[in-house]
Amino acid sequence: MATGNQLGNNGGRMYSFGAQPVLIDCSVVVNKANTSGTASVKGAGVQKVFMYSTAGGSATAIGNPLTVSAQSQGYALIQLNSNYNRYLGGFSGAVSPLTGGNVNIDATDAALTIGKPYVITSAGHGPAGTVTIAPVADVSGSLAGKYFMLYDSYGNNFCIWFNVSGVGMQPLLGPPAIGAVNGQPAGVRGLKYVQQTIATNASAATIGAALVLTIQNLDSGVQGVKSFTASGTTTVTVVSTAFLPVAGIPQDGSTVVPAIGPAIPVIFTIASGSATAGSVWTDGSGHLYTVTTTVSSGTTLVTSGIGQPVGSSLTFVSGAGSTTALSFSSAAAGYATGFSFALTVSDTNLADWNAVGLPRGLTPTAGQSFVATATGAGGSTGTVKAVGVSGILSVEVVGDPNLSFAPMPQGGSPNVGAWLLVQFMGLPSSGQTPVLTQPADGSVIGFSFYVDARLSPSNVSTGAI
Protein backbone atom coordinates (compact mmCIF):
# COMPACT_ATOMS: atom_id res chain seq x y z
CA MET A 1 0.00 0.00 0.00
CA ALA A 2 1.36 3.37 -0.99
CA THR A 3 1.78 5.99 1.70
CA GLY A 4 1.20 9.71 1.39
CA ASN A 5 4.84 10.62 0.85
CA GLN A 6 5.61 7.96 -1.78
CA LEU A 7 6.00 8.75 -5.47
CA GLY A 8 3.25 7.44 -7.73
CA ASN A 9 3.46 4.81 -10.44
CA ASN A 10 5.17 7.29 -12.75
CA GLY A 11 8.04 7.80 -10.30
CA GLY A 12 7.11 11.39 -9.52
CA ARG A 13 7.12 12.64 -13.10
CA MET A 14 4.40 14.93 -14.41
CA TYR A 15 3.11 14.65 -17.96
CA SER A 16 1.58 17.51 -19.93
CA PHE A 17 -0.10 17.95 -23.30
CA GLY A 18 1.76 21.23 -23.65
CA ALA A 19 4.55 21.13 -26.24
CA GLN A 20 7.05 22.92 -24.00
CA PRO A 21 5.36 23.59 -20.64
CA VAL A 22 6.93 26.04 -18.19
CA LEU A 23 5.82 26.74 -14.63
CA ILE A 24 6.49 30.32 -13.53
CA ASP A 25 6.03 31.37 -9.93
CA CYS A 26 6.69 34.43 -7.85
CA SER A 27 5.67 36.15 -4.65
CA VAL A 28 5.27 39.83 -3.85
CA VAL A 29 4.60 41.86 -0.70
CA VAL A 30 1.70 44.33 -0.99
CA ASN A 31 2.93 47.85 -0.20
CA LYS A 32 0.79 50.80 -1.33
CA ALA A 33 3.50 53.27 -0.25
CA ASN A 34 5.91 51.82 -2.82
CA THR A 35 5.82 53.37 -6.29
CA SER A 36 4.96 50.01 -7.84
CA GLY A 37 2.48 49.16 -5.10
CA THR A 38 4.55 46.09 -4.23
CA ALA A 39 7.88 45.17 -2.71
CA SER A 40 10.27 42.24 -2.70
CA VAL A 41 9.32 40.56 -5.99
CA LYS A 42 10.76 37.04 -5.80
CA GLY A 43 10.67 34.71 -8.77
CA ALA A 44 13.11 34.15 -11.63
CA GLY A 45 10.44 34.24 -14.34
CA VAL A 46 8.73 37.50 -13.32
CA GLN A 47 10.12 40.92 -14.22
CA LYS A 48 7.65 43.34 -12.56
CA VAL A 49 4.41 43.33 -10.58
CA PHE A 50 2.34 46.54 -10.49
CA MET A 51 -0.43 47.18 -7.98
CA TYR A 52 -2.26 50.27 -6.81
CA SER A 53 0.14 52.79 -5.25
CA THR A 54 -0.37 55.91 -3.14
CA ALA A 55 3.19 57.11 -3.86
CA GLY A 56 3.53 60.53 -5.51
CA GLY A 57 4.35 61.14 -9.17
CA SER A 58 2.55 60.65 -12.45
CA ALA A 59 1.84 57.29 -13.96
CA THR A 60 4.34 58.06 -16.72
CA ALA A 61 7.05 59.06 -14.27
CA ILE A 62 6.90 55.96 -12.16
CA GLY A 63 5.83 53.52 -14.86
CA ASN A 64 2.89 52.13 -12.92
CA PRO A 65 -0.46 52.53 -14.70
CA LEU A 66 -2.34 51.40 -11.57
CA THR A 67 -1.59 54.69 -9.79
CA VAL A 68 -3.81 56.72 -12.12
CA SER A 69 -6.78 56.58 -9.77
CA ALA A 70 -8.20 54.69 -6.85
CA GLN A 71 -10.33 52.80 -9.38
CA SER A 72 -7.30 50.62 -10.06
CA GLN A 73 -7.36 49.15 -6.56
CA GLY A 74 -7.76 45.40 -6.53
CA TYR A 75 -5.79 44.71 -9.72
CA ALA A 76 -2.27 43.48 -10.40
CA LEU A 77 -0.46 43.85 -13.72
CA ILE A 78 2.29 41.25 -14.08
CA GLN A 79 5.14 41.35 -16.57
CA LEU A 80 7.04 38.14 -17.21
CA ASN A 81 10.70 38.01 -18.15
CA SER A 82 10.13 36.16 -21.41
CA ASN A 83 7.51 35.83 -24.11
CA TYR A 84 5.37 32.71 -24.29
CA ASN A 85 3.08 31.15 -26.84
CA ARG A 86 0.17 30.14 -24.70
CA TYR A 87 -1.38 30.48 -21.24
CA LEU A 88 -2.22 27.01 -19.92
CA GLY A 89 -3.54 27.88 -16.47
CA GLY A 90 -2.50 29.17 -13.10
CA PHE A 91 -3.19 29.44 -9.42
CA SER A 92 -2.43 31.90 -6.70
CA GLY A 93 -2.92 32.58 -3.03
CA ALA A 94 -2.47 35.19 -0.34
CA VAL A 95 -0.36 35.01 2.81
CA SER A 96 -1.87 36.84 5.77
CA PRO A 97 -0.34 40.19 6.71
CA LEU A 98 0.76 41.02 10.26
CA THR A 99 -1.16 43.31 12.54
CA GLY A 100 -0.50 45.31 15.68
CA GLY A 101 2.82 46.05 17.34
CA ASN A 102 5.63 43.75 18.36
CA VAL A 103 4.82 41.45 21.26
CA ASN A 104 7.52 40.07 23.56
CA ILE A 105 7.62 36.32 24.21
CA ASP A 106 9.33 36.51 27.61
CA ALA A 107 7.67 35.22 30.76
CA THR A 108 7.72 38.63 32.42
CA ASP A 109 5.40 40.20 29.83
CA ALA A 110 3.34 37.00 29.32
CA ALA A 111 1.58 38.80 26.45
CA LEU A 112 0.83 35.91 24.07
CA THR A 113 -2.60 34.31 23.80
CA ILE A 114 -2.59 30.51 23.95
CA GLY A 115 -3.99 29.00 20.74
CA LYS A 116 -3.46 32.14 18.69
CA PRO A 117 -1.09 32.18 15.67
CA TYR A 118 1.90 34.53 15.57
CA VAL A 119 4.72 35.34 13.19
CA ILE A 120 8.27 35.93 14.42
CA THR A 121 9.51 39.47 13.81
CA SER A 122 12.80 39.14 15.73
CA ALA A 123 14.49 35.94 16.88
CA GLY A 124 16.17 37.91 19.69
CA HIS A 125 18.58 36.26 22.07
CA GLY A 126 18.34 34.36 25.31
CA PRO A 127 19.10 35.83 28.73
CA ALA A 128 22.53 35.84 30.36
CA GLY A 129 23.06 32.91 32.69
CA THR A 130 22.85 33.92 36.35
CA VAL A 131 23.84 32.30 39.65
CA THR A 132 23.83 33.47 43.25
CA ILE A 133 26.37 32.87 46.02
CA ALA A 134 25.54 33.35 49.71
CA PRO A 135 28.79 33.37 51.74
CA VAL A 136 29.17 32.48 55.42
CA ALA A 137 31.42 34.31 57.85
CA ASP A 138 34.92 33.11 58.63
CA VAL A 139 35.32 31.86 62.18
CA SER A 140 38.91 31.90 63.46
CA GLY A 141 40.23 31.05 59.99
CA SER A 142 37.63 28.40 59.20
CA LEU A 143 37.70 29.30 55.47
CA ALA A 144 41.48 28.93 55.13
CA GLY A 145 42.23 26.68 52.16
CA LYS A 146 38.54 26.17 51.35
CA TYR A 147 37.29 26.65 47.79
CA PHE A 148 34.28 26.57 45.49
CA MET A 149 33.99 26.11 41.72
CA LEU A 150 32.45 28.76 39.46
CA TYR A 151 31.66 27.94 35.81
CA ASP A 152 31.24 30.53 33.05
CA SER A 153 29.70 30.46 29.56
CA TYR A 154 33.06 30.43 27.75
CA GLY A 155 34.49 27.09 28.86
CA ASN A 156 36.29 28.14 32.06
CA ASN A 157 36.20 26.43 35.47
CA PHE A 158 37.30 28.85 38.18
CA CYS A 159 38.53 27.38 41.46
CA ILE A 160 38.15 30.27 43.94
CA TRP A 161 40.09 29.41 47.10
CA PHE A 162 40.51 31.34 50.35
CA ASN A 163 43.64 32.70 51.97
CA VAL A 164 42.71 33.89 55.47
CA SER A 165 45.25 36.37 56.89
CA GLY A 166 48.07 34.54 55.15
CA VAL A 167 46.83 31.03 55.99
CA GLY A 168 45.52 28.58 53.39
CA MET A 169 46.88 26.65 50.45
CA GLN A 170 45.61 26.25 46.89
CA PRO A 171 43.86 22.89 46.39
CA LEU A 172 45.20 20.54 43.75
CA LEU A 173 42.41 19.73 41.32
CA GLY A 174 44.56 19.19 38.26
CA PRO A 175 46.83 21.24 36.04
CA PRO A 176 45.57 24.77 35.26
CA ALA A 177 45.07 25.98 31.70
CA ILE A 178 48.44 27.06 30.30
CA GLY A 179 49.06 30.65 31.31
CA ALA A 180 45.92 30.66 33.43
CA VAL A 181 46.66 33.23 36.09
CA ASN A 182 44.82 36.39 37.05
CA GLY A 183 44.93 38.60 33.96
CA GLN A 184 45.49 35.59 31.69
CA PRO A 185 45.91 36.26 27.95
CA ALA A 186 43.07 35.96 25.46
CA GLY A 187 42.46 32.46 24.16
CA VAL A 188 43.35 30.69 27.43
CA ARG A 189 40.40 28.69 28.74
CA GLY A 190 40.00 25.81 31.15
CA LEU A 191 40.76 25.26 34.84
CA LYS A 192 41.93 28.43 36.57
CA TYR A 193 42.91 28.87 40.23
CA VAL A 194 41.93 32.21 41.75
CA GLN A 195 43.02 33.26 45.23
CA GLN A 196 40.53 35.14 47.38
CA THR A 197 42.21 36.90 50.30
CA ILE A 198 40.16 37.77 53.39
CA ALA A 199 40.86 38.63 57.02
CA THR A 200 40.27 36.29 59.95
CA ASN A 201 36.68 36.47 61.23
CA ALA A 202 35.53 38.43 58.14
CA SER A 203 31.74 38.73 58.05
CA ALA A 204 29.58 37.17 55.33
CA ALA A 205 28.87 40.64 53.88
CA THR A 206 32.59 41.51 53.82
CA ILE A 207 33.40 38.24 52.08
CA GLY A 208 30.58 38.83 49.57
CA ALA A 209 31.90 42.29 48.71
CA ALA A 210 35.39 40.85 48.20
CA LEU A 211 34.02 38.12 45.93
CA VAL A 212 32.25 40.74 43.79
CA LEU A 213 35.57 42.44 43.06
CA THR A 214 37.24 39.13 42.26
CA ILE A 215 34.48 37.61 40.13
CA GLN A 216 33.80 40.66 37.97
CA ASN A 217 37.48 40.68 36.96
CA LEU A 218 37.73 37.04 35.86
CA ASP A 219 38.91 36.85 32.24
CA SER A 220 36.85 34.80 29.81
CA GLY A 221 39.71 34.04 27.46
CA VAL A 222 38.17 36.34 24.83
CA GLN A 223 40.21 39.50 24.28
CA GLY A 224 38.79 42.34 26.38
CA VAL A 225 35.85 40.30 27.70
CA LYS A 226 35.29 39.38 31.34
CA SER A 227 33.34 36.27 32.25
CA PHE A 228 30.84 37.91 34.60
CA THR A 229 29.37 40.98 36.16
CA ALA A 230 28.75 40.71 39.89
CA SER A 231 26.96 42.62 42.64
CA GLY A 232 25.75 42.24 46.21
CA THR A 233 27.16 41.43 49.66
CA THR A 234 25.34 38.84 51.78
CA THR A 235 24.04 37.41 48.50
CA VAL A 236 26.25 37.87 45.45
CA THR A 237 24.49 37.84 42.06
CA VAL A 238 26.78 36.67 39.26
CA VAL A 239 25.66 37.30 35.66
CA SER A 240 27.36 35.97 32.53
CA THR A 241 28.59 38.52 29.99
CA ALA A 242 27.34 36.17 27.25
CA PHE A 243 23.66 35.68 26.43
CA LEU A 244 24.05 32.01 27.27
CA PRO A 245 23.57 29.83 30.34
CA VAL A 246 26.60 29.21 32.53
CA ALA A 247 28.00 25.69 32.38
CA GLY A 248 26.47 24.73 35.71
CA ILE A 249 25.57 25.67 39.27
CA PRO A 250 28.62 26.61 41.39
CA GLN A 251 29.95 23.64 43.37
CA ASP A 252 31.31 23.75 46.89
CA GLY A 253 34.74 22.26 47.61
CA SER A 254 35.12 18.55 48.20
CA THR A 255 34.32 17.25 51.70
CA VAL A 256 36.23 14.01 51.19
CA VAL A 257 39.21 13.65 53.54
CA PRO A 258 41.93 11.28 52.30
CA ALA A 259 43.22 8.76 54.83
CA ILE A 260 46.74 9.38 53.58
CA GLY A 261 47.73 12.97 52.63
CA PRO A 262 47.78 15.56 51.49
CA ALA A 263 46.62 17.45 54.58
CA ILE A 264 43.44 19.47 54.12
CA PRO A 265 41.47 21.81 56.41
CA VAL A 266 39.72 20.07 59.29
CA ILE A 267 37.69 22.24 61.69
CA PHE A 268 36.89 21.12 65.27
CA THR A 269 34.47 22.72 67.71
CA ILE A 270 36.31 22.40 71.02
CA ALA A 271 34.24 21.67 74.13
CA SER A 272 37.21 21.89 76.51
CA GLY A 273 40.96 22.41 76.37
CA SER A 274 43.32 24.69 74.47
CA ALA A 275 45.95 24.30 71.77
CA THR A 276 48.81 26.38 70.42
CA ALA A 277 49.53 27.07 66.75
CA GLY A 278 51.95 24.54 65.32
CA SER A 279 51.10 21.80 67.83
CA VAL A 280 50.17 18.37 66.44
CA TRP A 281 47.26 16.26 67.71
CA THR A 282 45.75 12.88 66.86
CA ASP A 283 42.34 11.24 67.18
CA GLY A 284 44.02 7.96 68.15
CA SER A 285 43.41 6.27 64.80
CA GLY A 286 46.60 7.49 63.17
CA HIS A 287 45.14 10.70 61.78
CA LEU A 288 47.22 13.81 62.52
CA TYR A 289 46.04 17.42 62.78
CA THR A 290 48.35 20.45 62.93
CA VAL A 291 46.82 23.47 64.66
CA THR A 292 46.65 26.55 62.46
CA THR A 293 45.90 29.18 65.10
CA THR A 294 46.00 29.16 68.90
CA VAL A 295 42.57 28.47 70.41
CA SER A 296 41.03 28.13 73.83
CA SER A 297 38.17 26.08 75.23
CA GLY A 298 34.78 26.58 73.55
CA THR A 299 36.13 27.96 70.29
CA THR A 300 36.76 26.58 66.82
CA LEU A 301 40.02 24.75 66.25
CA VAL A 302 41.36 25.12 62.71
CA THR A 303 43.83 22.45 61.65
CA SER A 304 45.52 21.03 58.63
CA GLY A 305 44.83 17.33 58.89
CA ILE A 306 44.82 13.91 57.33
CA GLY A 307 41.79 11.63 57.65
CA GLN A 308 38.18 12.00 58.74
CA PRO A 309 38.20 12.57 62.57
CA VAL A 310 37.17 9.60 64.66
CA GLY A 311 35.77 9.72 68.21
CA SER A 312 35.32 12.86 70.30
CA SER A 313 38.80 13.76 71.62
CA LEU A 314 42.27 14.69 70.40
CA THR A 315 45.48 13.81 72.19
CA PHE A 316 48.73 15.75 72.10
CA VAL A 317 51.52 14.51 69.83
CA SER A 318 54.12 17.31 69.61
CA GLY A 319 54.72 21.05 69.64
CA ALA A 320 54.36 23.90 72.12
CA GLY A 321 51.59 24.76 74.56
CA SER A 322 49.17 22.67 76.55
CA THR A 323 49.27 18.91 76.25
CA THR A 324 45.89 18.28 77.86
CA ALA A 325 43.53 16.27 75.69
CA LEU A 326 40.98 18.25 73.71
CA SER A 327 37.32 17.32 73.70
CA PHE A 328 35.39 18.22 70.53
CA SER A 329 31.68 18.16 69.90
CA SER A 330 31.81 18.23 66.11
CA ALA A 331 34.27 18.28 63.26
CA ALA A 332 33.91 19.48 59.67
CA ALA A 333 36.54 18.16 57.34
CA GLY A 334 37.34 18.96 53.76
CA TYR A 335 37.46 21.95 51.43
CA ALA A 336 33.77 22.89 51.55
CA THR A 337 33.08 26.54 52.34
CA GLY A 338 29.54 26.00 53.53
CA PHE A 339 28.31 28.70 51.13
CA SER A 340 24.89 28.40 49.49
CA PHE A 341 24.63 28.42 45.69
CA ALA A 342 21.71 28.70 43.27
CA LEU A 343 21.25 28.71 39.50
CA THR A 344 18.60 31.38 38.89
CA VAL A 345 18.66 31.94 35.10
CA SER A 346 19.56 29.07 32.78
CA ASP A 347 17.16 29.18 29.80
CA THR A 348 18.35 29.43 26.20
CA ASN A 349 16.78 31.39 23.36
CA LEU A 350 15.79 28.18 21.54
CA ALA A 351 14.27 26.68 24.69
CA ASP A 352 12.18 29.82 25.21
CA TRP A 353 10.86 29.71 21.63
CA ASN A 354 10.06 25.99 21.96
CA ALA A 355 8.27 26.72 25.23
CA VAL A 356 5.90 29.22 23.58
CA GLY A 357 5.09 26.95 20.63
CA LEU A 358 7.78 27.02 17.94
CA PRO A 359 8.02 23.38 16.74
CA ARG A 360 11.15 21.57 17.83
CA GLY A 361 13.80 21.21 15.15
CA LEU A 362 13.29 24.75 13.85
CA THR A 363 15.72 27.59 14.43
CA PRO A 364 13.79 30.77 15.35
CA THR A 365 13.87 33.04 12.29
CA ALA A 366 11.96 36.19 11.39
CA GLY A 367 8.95 35.25 9.25
CA GLN A 368 8.25 31.85 10.83
CA SER A 369 4.74 31.20 12.08
CA PHE A 370 3.57 29.12 15.03
CA VAL A 371 0.62 28.73 17.36
CA ALA A 372 1.24 29.88 20.93
CA THR A 373 1.15 27.12 23.54
CA ALA A 374 2.06 29.43 26.45
CA THR A 375 1.63 33.11 27.26
CA GLY A 376 5.41 33.56 27.58
CA ALA A 377 8.58 31.77 28.61
CA GLY A 378 12.00 32.56 29.99
CA GLY A 379 13.91 35.72 29.26
CA SER A 380 14.29 35.73 25.45
CA THR A 381 14.24 39.13 23.78
CA GLY A 382 12.39 37.64 20.79
CA THR A 383 9.27 39.34 19.45
CA VAL A 384 6.26 38.39 17.33
CA LYS A 385 3.28 40.03 15.71
CA ALA A 386 -0.29 38.85 15.54
CA VAL A 387 -1.72 37.61 12.25
CA GLY A 388 -4.08 39.83 10.25
CA VAL A 389 -6.28 39.09 7.24
CA SER A 390 -5.42 39.73 3.60
CA GLY A 391 -9.10 40.19 2.68
CA ILE A 392 -8.65 38.13 -0.51
CA LEU A 393 -10.83 35.12 -1.32
CA SER A 394 -9.64 34.48 -4.85
CA VAL A 395 -7.58 35.83 -7.75
CA GLU A 396 -9.00 35.92 -11.28
CA VAL A 397 -7.25 36.43 -14.60
CA VAL A 398 -8.75 39.33 -16.56
CA GLY A 399 -9.27 38.85 -20.28
CA ASP A 400 -7.52 36.31 -22.49
CA PRO A 401 -3.84 36.28 -21.49
CA ASN A 402 -2.96 34.39 -24.69
CA LEU A 403 -3.47 37.65 -26.59
CA SER A 404 -0.72 39.33 -24.50
CA PHE A 405 1.83 36.54 -24.52
CA ALA A 406 3.87 37.11 -27.65
CA PRO A 407 4.60 40.82 -28.08
CA MET A 408 6.84 41.60 -31.04
CA PRO A 409 9.54 44.29 -31.09
CA GLN A 410 8.02 47.71 -31.64
CA GLY A 411 9.62 51.06 -32.37
CA GLY A 412 13.08 49.65 -31.99
CA SER A 413 12.34 48.30 -28.50
CA PRO A 414 13.18 44.70 -27.60
CA ASN A 415 10.64 42.14 -26.54
CA VAL A 416 9.41 43.11 -23.09
CA GLY A 417 7.86 39.86 -21.90
CA ALA A 418 4.35 38.49 -21.66
CA TRP A 419 1.69 40.39 -19.71
CA LEU A 420 -1.12 39.22 -17.42
CA LEU A 421 -3.78 41.24 -15.65
CA VAL A 422 -5.44 39.76 -12.57
CA GLN A 423 -8.05 41.01 -10.12
CA PHE A 424 -8.43 40.24 -6.40
CA MET A 425 -11.85 39.30 -5.08
CA GLY A 426 -12.85 39.68 -1.43
CA LEU A 427 -15.86 39.63 0.84
CA PRO A 428 -18.60 42.17 0.12
CA SER A 429 -19.99 44.45 2.81
CA SER A 430 -23.39 42.93 2.06
CA GLY A 431 -24.77 40.27 -0.22
CA GLN A 432 -22.95 37.15 -1.37
CA THR A 433 -21.13 38.08 -4.54
CA PRO A 434 -17.35 38.65 -4.05
CA VAL A 435 -16.21 42.16 -4.88
CA LEU A 436 -13.02 43.72 -6.19
CA THR A 437 -10.75 44.16 -3.14
CA GLN A 438 -7.36 45.72 -2.54
CA PRO A 439 -5.19 43.25 -0.55
CA ALA A 440 -4.20 44.54 2.88
CA ASP A 441 -0.73 46.04 3.15
CA GLY A 442 1.80 43.47 4.24
CA SER A 443 -0.02 40.59 2.54
CA VAL A 444 2.21 38.30 0.51
CA ILE A 445 0.63 37.31 -2.79
CA GLY A 446 1.90 34.21 -4.57
CA PHE A 447 1.40 33.66 -8.29
CA SER A 448 2.01 30.54 -10.38
CA PHE A 449 1.45 30.49 -14.13
CA TYR A 450 1.52 27.43 -16.33
CA VAL A 451 2.54 28.49 -19.82
CA ASP A 452 3.81 27.00 -23.08
CA ALA A 453 7.03 28.34 -24.58
CA ARG A 454 6.93 26.30 -27.78
CA LEU A 455 6.48 28.14 -31.11
CA SER A 456 6.15 31.64 -29.65
CA PRO A 457 7.05 33.83 -32.64
CA SER A 458 9.24 36.14 -30.55
CA ASN A 459 10.90 33.27 -28.70
CA VAL A 460 11.66 31.45 -31.91
CA SER A 461 13.27 34.55 -33.37
CA THR A 462 15.43 35.18 -30.29
CA GLY A 463 16.07 31.58 -29.29
CA ALA A 464 14.61 32.36 -25.86
CA ILE A 465 12.86 29.05 -25.35
Describe this structure in words.
By secondary structure, this protein is mostly beta strands. It has four helices and 27 strands. Strands 15-18-17-16-19-20 form a six-stranded antiparallel β-barrel. Strands 3, 4, 24, 25 and 26 form a five-stranded antiparallel sheet that branches. The two termini are 41 Å apart. It folds into four domains: 21-96 and 390-462, no CATH class; 99-126 and 347-387, no CATH class; 130-254 and 339-345, no CATH class; 264-333, no CATH class.
How confident overall, as mean pLDDT?
A: 86
The rough form would be described as: rod-shaped
- Proportion of beta-strand residues: 25-35%
Low-confidence stretches: 458-465
What topology, given as strand order, has the largest sheet? Answer: 15-18-17-16-19-20
Helix/strand structural class: mainly beta
Rg over C-alpha atoms, rounded to the nearest angstrom: 38 Å
Number of domains: 4
Question: How many separate helices?
Answer: 4
The count of strands amounts to 27
Annotate the secondary structure layout.
Layout: E1 21-30, E2 38-42, E3 46-51, H1 59-62, E4 75-80, E5 86-95, E6 98-104, E7 117-122, E8 130-134, E9 147-151, E10 157-164, E11 191-198, H2 204-215, E12 228-232, E13 236-240, E14 251-252, E15 264-272, E16 280-282, E17 288-291, E18 300-305, E19 313-318, E20 326-333, E21 340-345, H3 349-356, E22 369-371, E23 383-387, E24 394-397, E25 419-426, E26 435-436, E27 444-452, H4 457-462
Parallel strand pairs: 10-11
Antiparallel strand pairs: 1-2, 1-27, 3-4, 4-25, 5-27, 6-23, 7-22, 7-23, 8-13, 8-21, 9-10, 9-14, 12-13, 15-18, 15-20, 16-17, 16-19, 17-18, 19-20, 24-25, 25-26
